[in-house]
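Deliverable D4.2, example record:
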Amino acid sequence: MNRFVEIINLEKTYYGHGLFKRSKNALKAVDRVSFGIAKKGVFGHVGESGCGKTSLVRSVLYLDPPTAGEVWMDNILLGGLKLAQLRAFRRRMQIVFQDPNSALNPKMNVQDSLEEGLVNRGLDAYHRKKLIDRMLDLVGISPSHSSRYPHEFSGGQKQRIVIARALCMEPDFLVLDEPVSNLDVSIQAQIINLLQDLKKELNLTYLFISHDLNLVAYLSDRIAVMYKGRLVESGSTDEIMGHPVHPYTLKLFSSIPGMDTTFAKDDARAPKETPAENGKSADLGADACNYCDFCSMVGRECREKEPQLETIDGSHKVACHKFLFSDTRAEA
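Output generated by the structure prediction step:
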C-alpha cells in the first residue's frame, strides 16, 4: 500500500430488531466501497443526503465499526487493533461534524471543551493551556475568549472552535463531514480557506464529505461520487469535473446553478424526470443497478447485473454498463 489511508471493500449494514427481523430488515448503508487517500491529500466524497456518506465516515473512523472490509491508516489495520490500542490510535484521526451547535456542550466553556481530550491524553495543565491557546489562535479565535460558552459565539466561530478541538489531538487525518453546510455562504468561504491553510500548516490529510459538488471540487485533489451506498464514479478532480460520465454524476452537474449543463440535457445518459414508484421496478433483479429507475439508458444488462467500477482513462473509474460496453464510450 502506497497511500496513507486505504479503504478496502468497506460495508456497513444496519439490522432490524428481533431474531427473525434481523436479516429481513437489513439496510446496507455502505456497500463494498474502496478508495485510497495520499498523504497530505484531500479526497472528496459527494452525494445526495441519505446516500451513506456519514455511515461511511463513521465506519472509517471506527466510531461505528464496519460490518465488513478493511481500513488501513499509515500501514496499520484498524480492525486488527485491540480496544485500548484503537483508543490510543484514534487521536491520529479526528472528525469535524456538520452542526457545531450539537457538537459543543452548551454547559462547557471553550477551555473545558477543548481540554477534555487532552486530559485523556495525560497532558498536564500547563501544556494543555499552551496547546489550546495555539490551536484557537490558528483557527482565528482569541485565546482570551476560552472562558466563554458556545452561545456567546456565532455559527462560524463555533465551527472554528470545533475544528480547534479536533486539532488539539494533533491528528494526521481529519474527516470533514459537511463542515460548512449549516453556515452562510460568506462564512462557508472563510471556513474552507481556513481548512486549506491548516492543511498546509499542520501537514494534514483530509476526507471531505459534502453534497455540494462545486465545494468538493474546490477543496479536493480526488473525488468519488456515491449513490445508495456505492461508488458510481471516481477520479481526479480534473477528470470528474471535466469529463463526468455516469448518469448520476450528470444529474448532480445539472443541479449546479450557473454551470453549463447543455451536455447533460441532450445526453442520452440524462436522468429521468421521475423515478418508478415504490423503489425499484418490478422487472428488476435483485442484483440490478441501483440507478435503473432514474436512468434513461437502462438496458437488459442493467436490470440483471450491478456494474462494477472500471477504469476508463488514467485514474478515472465509472460503474455503468452503458458507458463501458457500448458506443457511448466512444462518443463521450
